[in-house]
Specification:
single chain; binds magnesium ion; Alpha-Beta Plaits; about 25% strand; binds adenosine-5'-triphosphate; 13 strands; four-stranded antiparallel β-sheet; Rossmann fold; alpha/beta
Length: about 300
């Protein structure tokens, strides 16, 4: 598989601030790549360097084989962009905006079809300043698609959207992927990244602290699966006496970590054999959000250091 995006040793400083501090990664063509990190981690800086909007301090980057800074013109024909906090002219309508972008890129456009694709058809003729926040985001997405892009950069495309509107954007992202396009997505909604992304990287203070598929990151950094039993704390004492597995009491439940099906069966048998009354149980696995919170928290506390740091 060829790389749509290659980043090697990228740095960006704003005076004394090392916003991006030597990051490297590649994004496969046709993949959805989620770039995650807390506020100020360096996501938008990286995205805008890849879009050719900001100049890097060091390292090399390639998008579709082009250097975004020196080959910006050629690149802009092939990429679609929604900037973080997308804004547009107050008195322009979505229909006009789509037509305008079509002329800019010298591309034929079908405004009703494009606006329907992002669920904005009913606002085709409303002034931009009368659109809701989510509708403005949807217009941004429509404009990013005008030039039939091979790579789409979506910087927080779903921030502030209601749950239904977010799902509409997810569908667009899935359809972009189905078309074979590459999507570079930043988001603070971790479940969105877990659902949509083929590849994930987590950036913290300008350094990548984890990368892989969501499942790989969860496996590597998450806690094992737990059986959560609704039962009084004495169950924990009984289980500790009979099992060699970690047992915790948490808010009216007793949690037992397990790694294999065998272990799970043993836990269930021990719960049943304990004689302690229990009212129900469920299993729980870490989500990408659980792992993100724990990783970023440990980095902030200085307990964990970026891979490769001494
Ligand atoms: N133009 C600029 N001049 C000076 N510092 C900047 C500039 N742009 C960004 N920074 C700083 O660089 C760091 C990274 O900012 P960036 O916008 O890339 O973060 P982000 O990961 O996109 O955050 P968010 O999740 O809040 O959007 C921050 O410390 C920010 O204050
Ligand atoms: Mg940002």
């Amino acid at each position: 598989m060829t790389d749509a995006i290659r980043v090697d040793g990228l740095t960006k400083s704003y005076g004394p601030v090392h916003a991006v501090d030597g990051i490297s990664f590649t994004v496969d063509q046709g993949a959805v790549f989620a770039f995650l990190g807390p506020n100020g981690a360096g996501k938008t800086t990286t995205v805008e360097i890849l879009e050719g909007l900001r100049r890097r301090t060091g390292g090399s980057v390639e998008v579709l084989g082009l250097d975004p800074w020196s080959d910006g013109r050629a690149l802009h024909e092939k990429v679609g962009v929604i900037p973080q906090d997308f804004r547009f002219l107050d008195k322009i309508t979505p229909r006009e905006a789509v037509v305008y972008y079509g002329r800019l890129f010298d591309r034929p456009v079908d405004p009703p079809a494009l606006l329907a694709r992002v669920e904005l058809a009913e606002k085709a003729d409303a002034h931009y300043d009368t659109l809701s926040g989510g509708q403005k985001q949807k217009l941004g997405l429509a404009l990013a698609l005008v030039n039939d892009p091979k790579v789409c950069f979506l910087d927080e495309p779903t921030t502030g959207l209601d749950p239904k509107a977010r799902r509409a954007i997810w569908e667009v992202v899935r359809s972009l992927k189905a078309d074979g396009r590459t999507v570079f997505l930043t988001t603070h909604y971790l479940e969105e990244a877990q659902l949509l992304a083929d590849q994930v990287a987590i950036i913290h203070q300008g350094k990548i602290i984890a990368e892989g598929t969501a499942a790989e990151i969860i496996r590597r950094y998450g806690r094992p699966q737990r059986l959560v039993v609704d039962a009084p704390p004495e169950l924990a004492d009984r289980l500790r006496a009979t099992l060699r597995l970690p047992v915790q009491v948490a808010g009216g439940t007793v949690e037992v970590e397990y790694r294999t099906k065998d272990d799970l069966q043993k836990v269930l048998a021990a719960v049943q054999g304990s004689g302690v009354p229990w009212s129900g149980f469920s299993t729980r696995s870490d989500t990408l959000e659980d792992v993100f919170i724990s990783l970023v928290g440990r980095m902030d506390e200085g307990v964990l250091h970026p891979p490769g740091a001494s």
